[in-house]
Fold this sequence. Notes:
- This protein is α+β, with helices and mostly antiparallel strands.
- Helix content is 27%, strand content 26%.
- The protein has helices at residues 3-6, 30-43, 75-89, 91-95, 113-129, 138-144, 172-185, 229-234, 298-311, 360-373, and strands at residues 20-26, 48-52, 67-68, 102-103, 106-110, 134-136, 160-164, 168-169, 189-192, 196-202, 205-211, 214-223, 243-254, 262-265, 270-274, 279-283, 320-330, 337-340, 346-350.
- Flavin-adenine dinucleotide binds at residues 26-32, 51-54, 58-61, 63-67, 195-196, 224-228, 232, 247, 249, 283, 326, 328, 352, 354-358.
- Flavin-adenine dinucleotide is lined by residues 26-32, 51-54, 58-61, 63-67, 195-196, 224-228, 232, 247, 249, 283, 326, 328, 352, 354-358.
Amino acid sequence: xxxxxxxxxxxxxxxxxxxxxxxxxxxxxxxxxxxxxxxxxxxxxxxxxxxxxxxxxxxxxxxxxxxxxxxxxxxxxxxxxxxxxxxxxxxxxxxxxxxxxxxxxxxxxxxxxxxxxxxxxxxxxxxxxxxxxxxxxxxxxxxxxxxxxxxxxxxxxxxxxxxxxxxxxxxxxxxxxxxxxxxxxxxxxxxxxxxxxxxxxxxxxxxxxxxxxxxxxxxxxxxxxxxxxxxxxxxxxxxxxxxxxxxxxxxxxxxxxxxxxxxxxxxxxxxxxxxxxxxxxxxxxxxxxxxxxxxxxxxxxxxxxxxxxxxxxxxxxxxxxxxxxxxxxxxxxxxxxxxxxxxxxxxxxxxxxxxxxxxxxxxxxxxxxxxxxxxxxxxxxxxxxxxxxxxxxxxxxxxxxxx
Length: 403
Ligand SMILES: Cc1cc2nc3c(=O)[nH]c(=O)nc-3n(C[C@H](O)[C@H](O)[C@H](O)COP(=O)(O)OP(=O)(O)OC[C@H]3O[C@@H](n4cnc5c(N)ncnc54)[C@H](O)[C@@H]3O)c2cc1C
């Protein structure tokens, strides 16, 4: 028995794969499972299979640091992520499962004049586009997060911050299992341990998938494969402007005091949040070298821990519990790519880089509507793949939080 089979999650069983489905979704991460759930729950489309080569949540959806926010830098992104933030706020009721959603607010710190201007502009843009963000000075920062060292170790003084009160976190595996279970209850098949090895084509149309369990026909195929989308898309002859980079994160042991909001500093390139168990989760930027390696390193720990301690000096007394890696499909404009690929019958939801956990509910909802209606919804139309050839990129690098 291989390691993946041993780690399968005990979901309600799905019967053996059918010879064909109306919709085949490749990838049992948050985006694939949420799309399956909303297809069944909102559109009554239940002849759907999710094919996951390992176990659900094995990819980035089970490896991320779960920050949920809508304080993006372009109107289209604010609208999309605000929808997702609102869906997260109602997710426990929607799925009838505890996903440990906690609204805790988010402080995006400024340590120099240029960033101060950026954060002030973020507050204005967010407010104009329907997300709640306000600019706050150092006194208010201290009130919201007393554990922060406002001197920033003498080198990175906190001059102010944008404060996003509806910033939140949720338990990642509960979100994944909640969507999977909700989909299965409505008749969707979720198959773990089945790998897609090829796409079946009839001329320009994708009509099914080759898998480790044989060929499966499909009316529509959706690729939702996290950091492996270029491999999948190449099976349909589609080239994507995506590069895959590892992203690391780490967690400390329990700290008895409450941190309060999620803290982000793009000047220092670090973010920190506290889990419901009191552990401190922290992370930073993607590894510079593109690649698919899941190996974490001491360089990351040294650099990232130093930056976290600069802002939150109490962290130097904590011990490290774990560090880990995911591989992220980075789009050149730091925005997602959702919808048609140019190959008939083959859609993708990708480019989720370091920011796609927060997008799972809206991504799933909107992709399901796109599949059901046969055309992209208004909310995701700006994120179509053809924006690159139309010179309509959705540049939003400053909102990645990790760059
Ligand atoms: C360390 C880290 C921290 C992060 N922090 C945050 C954060 O705080 N907030 C945020 O919003 N985002 C964050 N992200 C990003 C977020 O995790 C991802 O964008 C999101 O989870 C992507 O979800 P997905 O469903 O597209 O892909 P995944 O969750 O990666 O799922 C893809 C699935 O496809 C499967 N698969 C691949 N190829 C095949 C195949 N050929 N056949 C069958 N199955 C296949 C994989 O096994 C995998 O389970 C972070 C990521 C990392 C790595």
